[in-house]
Structure formats: C-alpha cells, structure tokens
C-alpha cells in the first residue's frame, strides 16, 4: 500500500528502526508481534512507522494502514479497521478470502446480508459483537496465510471506543495467539502509535494501554526527542542552501528534539520577531483552551516567567489563594501542559507550548506581568544568578534603565563563569539600551564608557568564535572614538581592531591599524598599552611577511615587558620570537622558549596567551615530523580552554583541528572520528575545523558523501580553513576519478583562495600539487599509449608548470623557513609524479617518496607504495612490485581504506600471471550493464562529458560511474582500469589485438 512521501531524509532513528525491523522479521517467520509506539506530537512517530512500512513492503509484506481521527464526541465506530477493509476490498488478491468472512460486508455495509446486530440491536449476551470481534481476528489470520501482513494503526489516542475494544480483543485473544498444535503462528505484525503527551489522567485510552503493555506479545517503544546533532542534520536537510550556523543552533535549541517543530521553525524562520508559526500555535493552544479560566490565567502567568517557574514566585505573580492556585496547577499538569518538578517548580512540557501561550497574551497584559516578575525578583535581592532574568523582565516591561543595569550585571557574571557567548549577548543588550536609558542609569567609573564596553564585547565575540562579529564591534568602537578620547584608549581600539582583522584574514588592513596604534603612544615612558600594541604589531608584521620589523619590535617590546613586570605580555612576545628566530618552533631552542612562555602566561592568568603557546608547541612538533608528540600539548591546551570556557576561540579551534589531523596522520582513524563526534557534542564548531580530517577519512574509505560535504564547506562566506579542507578533498577526489582537468582546476582555485594578500602561497600547495599530479600523470601516460604526442607533451608541460610553485613553497614556506618532513614528503611524491608524466615511471623516485613518508603517515605511505609498485611493475620487477602491493593491502585493510586495497589487488593480479585452465583465476568484478557501457567508452578515450553525451546521461552521473568502476576494478586511474578490463575480458579487445 502507498506510504507518505517525505521530502526530507530519514534522520536519527536508526536504533528504533532496527528494533521494528526485527519485529517484522519475526512476524514473517510466523511469530506475530505488536509494538505500541509512543511519543509527543511531532516527534516523528508517523515517519518511523512509514519507514518501517516501506521496509516491510520491500520484504514482501502487505502493509495495511488505518487512521484514528479526532472527531470529538462524534466517533465513527471501527474507523481505522473500516479503512483497512476498504484497502483490502480494492485489492483483487484477497477477494476470495474476504468473500468467506461476513464481517467484511457488515463493517463496509456492502453486502446483501443483514443481521439483528446491524442496527445496533445486539442480543443481550453481546453475541453479535463477539462474532464481529472473532470474525475480524479470523479474517486477519486467514489473510496472513496468503501474505505476511503489517497492520499500522495511527493515533490511537483518538480511537473510538469500538476500535479500542477490537484492538484489545485482537491483541489479547485474537491473532497474536499461536494456533493450536505445533508449527509457526500467524505471519502478522501490528504497529500502533499514540501521543504520549495527550494521555491525561482520565484519558480513555490509558486503561487499555495499561492492559496491553502487560501482554507477552506486545512491546512498547517510546520515541524520545531527537539528539541535537540529528535535529541539526534535519534542519540543514530542509533547505537547499546552507543555513547560517547561528540559525541552525537557534532552531535546534527551540525545537528540543521535536522534528515537526523543527520543520515548522525552519519554515517560519523569517517570520516577524521569530515568533511561533500561527499554524503551530493553533495546534499547541488547543489543549490550553480546554482549561478553566483560572487555569488559563495561571498558565499565561507562568508563560511570562519562562519555561520553568518557582511555585512561590508564580503564586505571588498570579495573586490567587493557595487552594485555587493548586487546583489550577493540578488541572494544567493533568492535561500534560505543565510538569511538576521535585524542587517545587513547574515547567512547560515543551518550550514551544510556552511560546504559543506567551504569544497569545495581550500587549498590556504581557508588559504588566513582566513588570510584576521583575519587581518580585528584585525584592528577593540582586543576586548575580538572577541578573539575566531580571534584565529580560525589565526590558519587556519597558524599563530601559533597570534593564541596562541588570544586563551589565549579567555580563559580569557570565565573564566570571567563563561564558563568552552569554557575556557577548548581555553586553550587546547594554549597548542597545544605551540611548534609551536615562543618564542616571548609565555606568560610571573605569571601563564604564561606551567605547570600552564595545571593546569588551569584541573580546567576548572573539572568545565565542564570532570572528566577524568581533570585527564589527571593534569598528563600531573606532567610530565612537572622538577628538577628546584618551590616546591610550584610541590606541587600544586600533590594535584590538588589528587583532580581530587578523582573525578574518584581512592582513593588510590589520598591519595598517597596528602601525597606527603603535605610532599613537610613545615607547617612553614605558606603558602596558604600548607593550600590547607592539605585541599585536609583531603578529601583523609577521602575517604580511615583514619579518625584520616583527623581530625588531618583538625584541624591543620584550625588554619593556620585563621592566614593567608583565608576565603575560612577555609570554606573548616569547611565542612570537620562538616562531621568528632561528629554525622556529620546530627547533629545541624554539620549544624551550615556548615552554617558558606557557609558564609565564599561566602565572599571569592569561588563558588565550597560554593556549597560543600550547598550540605553537604542538604545531612545532607536527612540523618537525613528530606527530605523536603533539597530542599531550593539545590535550593540555584543550583542557585549559575547556576550563576557561574558551573552546570556540581561535587557538582552541586550531588545536581541535590539529588534534584530529594528528590522529588521522597516525592512522588512528576510528579515534579521529570518535573525537570529532565528541567535540561536536560539546562545541558545534563550524567549517573545516570540525570536519576536515573526518572528511579525509571518509574519502579514503570511499564514502560517497565525502565530496558533497566538502563542497558544502565552500558554498557560504569565505573561510580559510574550510577552503583548505575542501581543496584537499575535492582535488584528491578528482584525481581518484581520473579527471585531470578537474584536479588541476581545483588545485589552482584552492591555491588562489588560500593565498594571502601579500601573495604568499599556503604550505598546503605542495600537498595539493602532489594530489593533482596523480591525474596529470595518468593523462600523460594515456596520451603516449594512444600515440597522441601533442596530448602527452601538453600534460607533461602542465606537470612541470605545477611542480615549480610546490618546490618554492617547500623551500620557503608561509613563515619563510623551509617546510619540515611532511612538506618534503609531499614534494618527493610530486616530483616522482612529475617525472612519470614527463619521461615515464621512475622506481627510484618512488622509492624516495616512500622513504620520505616514513615519518608517520601510514595512509600516504601506502599510497606511495602503491605507485612504487606500479613503477616496479612497469620496469618488469614483478616480485618487488608484489611485495610492495602486499604491504599496501595490509595497511589499507587495517585502515579500512577499501578503494586503496582494491588498487593493490589490481597490481597483484597484474604481477602474477593468470593460472592455466586447471589453476585458480581471480574472479572478475561484477559490473552493471551501464558500467560496462561506460567502461567501453573509457577504453575509447572519452571524457566524462563525452560519455554523458553518448549515453544520454549527465557528465556528473558519468563521473560517478567512472568512480564506481575504478573502485570495483581496484584501479588507480582510467588507464589502469582499461588495462584490467582488457585482461579480464570485461570489454572486447581492440581490433587487430591478439591473445
């Protein structure tokens, strides 16, 4: 039977679906079972049932669905079962079975036979009703002999009394009972849903539910709210274009795991004031309007308090005698609108129910109640933990002066507890209220002016990971600097703006502002402001490549910081010098300086500088080719960030990415995926910081979604880390599919987007070049084999052209110093690929690449071994090629890199001559008819676009087929795939070919 068609993917119910699928499997073998599926409105009951029904239909079961409908006091008897009988009557397969059961005519009203019971005049013993119940049980039992059955009953909380009685009979005495004698029972399963939140204490379905759950053949499955990560996936899936992370987080918070509410919120996200959609509000207010007037008054007052309200506070706000209040609360709790807590509080069962009640208030009523709550909270004492609540009530009651004071108090409290996002929220509220608040309410004293508050808000935004918001706030502070502003404050604004601009890669502007800041205040007499301006200028100068200025200013400022006794400023400058002097942070001297800086920052209580030192220690070890040594530094840095509440600030984001990268590089892929998942549960980081290395794993394992996820990273605002990750994944993916044009184009576009304003190329250009050259080499080799001299020369020239920037980037990296072992390893691979493209495979060059990757990257080492094996095979050194290929297969198996393992197998097949008629021969892979068509055109040298045109499919679809063929054949490129296909007789030999 047809199921509902959903526009969104099925998300987050894998465990429940597996459990229901197990019930279906048992039912198909003759073990009849029933499952009662419970959940709040909108949590996803219908979707789970529909997915289960689809599985049942695919497995050969007949699915019959009946719905209960809310008709108030006017119920239609047996409504869901009548609907099911109508479906059966329309299916000719069951005509003979239905004809043998008079109960069908009776319920459908289609037969000529009438009985004394038809008009409700049942015999005194109820025999007519019992015959109907038994007739339905017998009918379903006979139908299950024809086909395995799945009965789906939806919304049992609305079931009419007759349907409830029939369900009770069927599950307790009917078709779930095993027939007498040996053998299997009926091939039948029942899945029935109901809204748990609708079952108030006197609901008529509650007694039946209590009976049914005690039956041995009946299970209960409660659908809990979706996890936040699953709701976020759902929200993103509802839109064609990516939503801003802030919007996604806001919807996730409001939906509280309810899929229906999440969908409604996505649909209404542009509604004025972010209110609850009217349709959803109407749905939620239905039960509210069924309350008495007093209970509605209590609920409206509670809605103004928020999601949860203390009993005493609610009593004082509503102004009712205790007895009346308790009666009203008992009514609201019974109707499942409020939930009583053990701590004397009451909470709305769902946040959106509270929002719907709140939105239904009249404006004057709303303002009056907010004012009452604000006064009550203030009367209890100005405790810091109520400041945010007081600020909210004062603001909504239109008292800007008190709202501003309470917001500033809340911001101070947030800073003390290490909550930068909340601090930012409250500071922005202060700034919004500044113009409307009376002068007497504005803060006074040091740090109480508007410009300083903007700088504080900017710092909070940076610590919360809102880099662009930090820039906007600092620019606003600069606009507020007047002629009479203190020069030190004016300098602070400029070097703060320089720091925030570096966070969004606006390096030239950052250097300009840091230069202005340093020029505004003299170095003598020495001052802390000058030291921090100098420290910021050092960073900006280094970013634009002015190393001489950076070194000169850093050395001068370090001496001043020592004289003034500024340990955290000394620490920051020591980190800069460790990165600038000698061999930098990779050297023992640099590491010693960084360790000193870490201790100074710790003593000075400056968590951001301490984390900068720890990150520099970790990245220095990584660049030195010692990835294992990074992990303790990273663990310490992330723990410090966690304790300081700064996990979303710049250096912790870098540390989280580096931690995942190290785990990936060390081949600890499962740990990498677990760590990323745990990180996202704590701090939903954006872009490449959170996803990068997990996408590398996904691509290496052949997961089809890796490319789409990487592409999504670069579809919004430019983000350097997202561009880096996407560049690596998409360049590698194009190379793996053998598309040289796409690989080179992706390499060039990625390098362009990652090159800074000074023209310095990113270090990753070496890796990107090596990846793209794999496809270029294949294209050059294919052209030579086909006698296409001009094509071979063209691709050889492209290879040589691409190699030079990679060599330059390796010798003079982003910092000006040569890259470490990782960069040199990628260069060795790029040079080996280039040599192959220009003059053919060179085993010695590939042996050097294998040695270069021996520092600790098992996956890239295995990939170089594969190319080494292919070069050995081309040189006729089959035994050596076999040894290398076996090592590749072992490493790939350990990592779960199935595509790489398949390519190693292809080398092994080529290195070992096929056995004779009596020997074993590798079984050829199974290709679909479409894949064989694509393979035939590949052998003719067609591009993806040309293949698509000839087969009347898109070029993208052709590319997918090519990727599938390469994976099935275990080929590293198109040329190898065609060679394997000829050898395995998957396509006819070329005309004139022999053997």
Task: Summarize the SSE layout with pairings.
Blueprint: H1 14-28, E1 33-39, H2 45-58, E2 62-67, H3 79-89, H4 95-99, H5 102-108, H6 127-146, E3 149-154, H7 161-172, E4 188-195, H8 205-212, E5 218-222, H9 228-237, H10 245-255, H11 259-267, H12 278-288, H13 293-305, E6 308-310, H14 311-318, H15 322-334, E7 338-340, E8 345-348, H16 351-359, H17 363-379, H18 387-396, H19 400-416, H20 420-433, H21 450-463, H22 467-479, H23 487-503, H24 507-520, H25 528-543, H26 547-564, H27 567-580, H28 588-604, H29 607-623, H30 627-644, H31 650-665, H32 669-682, H33 687-700, H34 705-713, H35 720-736, H36 740-754, H37 765-785, H38 789-811, H39 821-839, H40 843-852, H41 858-874, H42 878-895, H43 898-911, H44 929-939, H45 944-951, H46 955-969, H47 974-983
Parallel strand pairs: 1-4, 1-5, 2-3, 3-4
Antiparallel strand pairs: 6-8, 7-8
Helix pairs in contact: 1-2, 7-8, 9-10, 10-11, 12-16, 13-15, 13-16, 17-18, 18-19, 19-20, 20-21, 21-22, 21-23, 22-23, 23-24, 23-25, 24-25, 25-26, 25-27, 26-27, 27-28, 27-29, 28-29, 29-30, 29-31, 30-31, 31-32, 31-33, 32-33, 33-34, 33-35, 34-35, 35-36, 35-37, 36-37, 37-38, 37-39, 38-39, 39-40, 40-41, ...
